[in-house]
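PROTEIN DESIGN WORKSHEET
SECTION A - STRUCTURE
LENGTH: 123
TOKENS:
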């Protein structure tokens, strides 16, 4: 399984992490497929740099981010954009369907009234 995870670097008590795409069977600091960003928790405020396009690509290919990386991606704005766009699209679609339903109901009411008026005038 392909995972998006952190690779620890930096000196003793001065951690620095690279965000990498790696096979889950490889060691934490072992071989990886691609480096897509970095995370520096020592700086104030912590620095998160992610190549969003590559992260989106790997997520679309089925790569599973670790919990920490998922949180970092969320903070950097990667991964949530598609979900937000899909949610907005779904809301717009529901509104359009509701509007069409309301228009159809009004048309049915108008047709029913017209039918009743025609029946009354014929009597």
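SECTION B - SEQUENCE
RESIDUE ASSIGNMENT:
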């Amino acid at each position: 399984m392909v995972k998006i995870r952190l690779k620890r670097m930096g000196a003793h008590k001065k951690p620095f992490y690279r965000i990498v795409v790696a096979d889950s069977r490889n060691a934490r600091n072992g071989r990886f497929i691609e480096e897509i960003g970095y995370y520096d928790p020592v700086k104030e405020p912590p620095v998160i740099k992610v190549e969003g396009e590559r992260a989106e690509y790997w997520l679309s290919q089925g790569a599973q981010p670790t919990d920490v990386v998922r949180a970092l991606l969320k903070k950097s704005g990667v991964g949530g954009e598609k979900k937000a766009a899909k949610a907005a699209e779904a809301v717009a679609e529901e509104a359009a369907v509701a509007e069409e339903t309301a228009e159809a109901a009004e048309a049915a009411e108008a047709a029913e009234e017209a039918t009743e008026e025609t029946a009354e005038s014929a009597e």
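SECTION C - NOTES
The two ends are 78 Å apart (CA to CA).
The first strand starts at residue 2 and ends at 11.
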